Amino acid sequence: MDDSETPRGTAGRHPLHAFREAEDLVEKRRPLDALKALQPVLEAEPDKPSVQLLAGRAYFHSAQLNRAEQALTRVLELDPSDHYARFVLGRTLQRLGRLVEALGQLRMAWAMNPVPEYQDALSEVNARVRLREG
Q1: pLDDT (tens digit, 9 = 90+) per residue, 89-124?
Q2: Which residue of 74, 79, 88, 127 has the smallest Cβ count within 10 Å?
Q3: Coiled coil: which residue ranges (predicted)?
């Protein structure tokens, strides 16, 4: 989120400040508080990938998995090259029990950015899919 691009919110508070506060709250494992802080930014900037990604992370960490899926899917509509959004979407789909879909997202995330965290998630879901298939 860029300070120069965003207008001031209705309460006179700059959306960037609300975004940073929400980001900090997600890092502190307070996703519900983060979503409250982020709400005015979501209303003002619904088509910003960074805003949707932060919302998706907060929804994921608060177990609002359908909302997380919607937000992360929106990120990928706006920016298909966002490997981290694909990773979190893959983990969301995994928690929803949609392992084959999760596997697809995790494979793409790992292909875009082969970091150990992505490889571990990919291996875990791959093993679960193989167990289901018998």
Answers
A1: 999 999 999 999 999 999 999 999 999 999 999 999
A2: 127
A3: none
- Are 49 and 75 within 8 A, CB to CB? yes
Q: For tokens 């996703």, what's the residue?
A: 31
- Give the integer Cα–Cα distance in Å for 37 and 88: 21
Q: pLDDT for 77-89, tens place per residue?
A: 999 999 999 999 9
How long, in residues, is the chain? 134
Element holding 18 (H helix, E strand): helix 15-27
Q: What is the pTM of this model?
A: 0.87
Instruction: Find, among 13, 72, 11, the residue nearest to 3 by Cα.
Output: 13
Grouping H, G, I as helix, E, B as strand and the rest as coil, residue 13 is: coil
64 phi, psi to nearest 5 deg: -95, 70
Site of tokens 């084959």: 100
Q: Residue 65: pLDDT band by 50, 70, 90 thresholds?
A: very high
Which residue, chain included where needed, has tokens 């929106």?
74
